[in-house]
């Protein structure tokens, strides 16, 4: 049974797109159908590049039936995919807003709640066997990461696992001046908002400091706009994401207030990535809560 609890969310409209305007919410991407559609497509690109939906050694447990949380689930592409693959398991999703994707059929073994995970994950202690979270690099401050991991530790059962996925947007491999300028600007913007742009490099330390035992640390190099179809699709997602965040970027970088100038720069990044064979380094951290 799909269950949804909704709470009011303060939004601001910039260039016709809706963005969070609540000071307690750090998430920078828009909240609308276009962004939800982008994330749905992104899921398939990541699934291909990562050769599956998860890295934790839990396939047998998932097939038998466990309780899973998708933390910061967004439009729930991962949640729905996993729920269909593992019908004996129960999947819960939590996000700051659950609006655009709540249409059509949903797997019966899914349930959703609206909450700010950096403040509180709305479940009792020791609820979940497995917690999955990815791509909150533009959604959690330094304190937000610490609070979220503390909440994960609380709601995870002893012996349960968490799995975190974040890209290294701070520094890509094989870059040129166009890509470097873009990532320097966004890193500066994130730092100004107390959001760590290099969080992918510190997942192991942060999870360990939160009390977890780190079991796996994996780095996957993903081609951007070269090598194969996956590289092309990753670039399309990359471009789409940066177009979606442009109104926020332009608030601190006035030379990108003009959308045409910004598009030219983004397109130059794509050509540069193809020529220099740029790669995005994707970091995965799997950790376990102590059994005692």
TrEMBL record:
<dbReference type="InterPro" id="IPR025714">
    <property type="entry name" value="Methyltranfer_dom"/>
</dbReference>
<dbReference type="InterPro" id="IPR029063">
    <property type="entry name" value="SAM-dependent_MTases_sf"/>
</dbReference>
<dbReference type="Pfam" id="PF13847">
    <property type="entry name" value="Methyltransf_31"/>
</dbReference>
<feature type="domain" description="Methyltransferase">
    <location>
        <begin position="63"/>
        <end position="174"/>
    </location>
</feature>
<protein>
    <recommendedName>
        <fullName>Methyltransferase domain-containing protein</fullName>
    </recommendedName>
</protein>
């Amino acid at each position: 049974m799909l269950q949804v609890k909704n709470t009011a969310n303060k939004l601001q409209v910039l260039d016709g797109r809706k963005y969070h305007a609540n000071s307690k919410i750090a998430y920078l991407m828009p909240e609308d159908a276009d962004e939800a559609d982008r994330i749905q497509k992104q899921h398939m690109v990541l699934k291909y590049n990562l050769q599956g939906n998860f890295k934790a050694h839990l396939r047998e447990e998932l097939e038998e039936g466990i309780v899973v949380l998708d933390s910061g689930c967004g439009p729930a592409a991962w949640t729905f995919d996993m729920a269909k693959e593992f019908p004996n398991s129960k999947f819960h999703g939590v996000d700051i807003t659950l609006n655009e994707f709540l249409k059509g059929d949903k797997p019966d073994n899914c349930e959703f709640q609206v909450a700010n995970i950096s403040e509180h994950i709305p479940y009792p202690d020791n609820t979940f066997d497995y917690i999955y979270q990815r791509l909150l690099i533009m959604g959690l401050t330094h304190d937000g990461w610490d609070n979220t991991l503390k909440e994960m530790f609380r709601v995870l059962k002893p012996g349960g696992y968490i799995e975190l996925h974040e890209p290294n947007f701070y520094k890509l491999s094989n870059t040129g001046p166009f890509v470097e300028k873009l990532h320097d600007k966004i890193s500066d913007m994130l730092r100004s908002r107390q959001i760590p742009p290099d969080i992918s490099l510190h997942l192991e330390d942060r999870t360990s400091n939160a009390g977890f035992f780190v079991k796996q640390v994996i780095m996957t190099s993903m081609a951007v706009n070269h090598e194969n179809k996956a590289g092309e699709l990753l670039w399309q997602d990359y471009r789409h994401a940066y177009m979606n965040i442009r109104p926020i970027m332009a608030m601190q970088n006035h030379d990108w207030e003009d959308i045409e100038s910004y598009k030219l720069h983004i397109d130059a990044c794509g050509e540069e990535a193809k020529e220099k064979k740029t790669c995005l380094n994707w970091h995965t951290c799997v950790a376990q809560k102590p059994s005692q």
